[in-house]
Design a protein that fits this description.
Strand content: 5-15%
CATH topology of the largest domain: Rossmann fold
Largest sheet: 5 strands, parallel
Order of helices and strands: HEEEHEHEHHEHEEH
CATH architecture of the largest domain: 3-Layer(aba) Sandwich
Helix content: 55-70%
Strand order of the largest sheet: 5-4-6-7-8
Distance between the termini: 111 Å
């Protein structure tokens, strides 16, 4: 159970001004103070637990989770979580078609890997590029690294996408909805929760609050990845046991076949001996 004090200390209960609210967020609003809406943290805690169990199941199935947060308060935390989990993330700018046209994005990732390979080999004596070309390659690599550097670990199909600030990441949400990818989002009082499968009501402008939410989800995903490894080991052990149990049965079956085949050979030899006198008798009659 999540302690409500931790949510309050992280500032997740603060919403936006009453004049900027979205009426669809009314079920998640507790009240207001000083013209600012206050979010019901009990519903935030319940949503966090529900979302964590969902992401844990996604990770245990071996599907990738895409973490998206390009605003200043979220980008560093998103990059840290994605790199620690070795999962794809977007922290600079959402590239159109990341989900719906992944083949083109994959080409950009391949180009980035090619430039990085060239720059890593630039110190070798066998380098064939001039200094001017290497400077140009480094600039191109830096530009690609900002836009698609976090998508190196992206694998299809995507099990879920996590969004920070639905208003800013609206294009990513539309792509996920169109592709049928479950959407998890931290939704503030001024955002529209329509089209989001797992709504986490909370302040999406506080770096401390965003870090608390993402760290909680990260721990759940880590458990899912550990369960995946354990399941893989169990499957390997079961397969080895099945192979080991099949081996003696195969040997017994082979020995039975050999035993059955031996009398047949003897029977063939005896019939050949019986047929031999008849043939010699026919030959003597022919000579006479």
């Amino acid at each position: 159970m999540i302690d409500f004090r931790q949510l309050i200390d992280a500032g997740l209960h603060f919403g936006h001004q009453k004049s900027r609210w979205c009426p669809k967020m009314k079920p998640f609003i507790w009240g207001h103070r000083g013209g600012v809406h206050l979010i019901d943290i009990s519903k935030t805690a319940l949503a966090l637990q529900k979302t964590a169990s969902f992401l844990e199941s996604v990770a245990s199935r071996g599907e990738s989770i895409l973490w998206v947060g390009t605003k200043k308060a979220a980008k560093d935390v998103v990059a840290q979580v994605g790199s620690e989990l070795k999962m794809p993330y977007v922290d600079y700018r959402w590239v159109g078609g990341t989900i719906t046209n992944y083949q083109q994005v994959k080409k950009a990732v391949t180009k980035l890997l090619h430039y990085e390979d060239i720059l890593s080999k630039a110190k070798d004596d066998s380098n064939v590029y001039t200094k001017k070309e290497l400077v140009r390659f480094s600039k191109l690599a830096e530009r690609l690294r900002r836009s698609v550097g976090g998508l190196k670990d992206l694998r299809m199909p995507i099990g879920a996408i996590v969004l920070i600030d639905v208003k800013k990441e609206h294009t990513a949400q539309l792509e996920a909805n169109g592709a049928g990818v479950p959407v998890v989002a931290l939704v503030d009082s001024n955002a529209d929760p329509s089209g989001i499968d797992y709504i986490i009501p909370g302040n999406d402008d506080s770096t401390k609050g965003i870090k608390f939410v993402l760290d909680y989800l990260k721990s759940a995903v880590s458990k899912g990845l550990a369960n995946k490894v354990n399941h893989a080991k169990k499957d390997e052990q079961e397969k080895e046991l099945k192979d080991a149990s099949k081996a003696p049965k195969a040997k017994v079956a082979a020995s039975k076949k050999e035993v059955k085949a031996a009398p047949k050979k003897k029977a063939v030899a005896s019939t050949a001996k019986k047929a031999a006198p008849k043939t010699t008798a026919k030959k003597t009659e022919a000579k006479k």
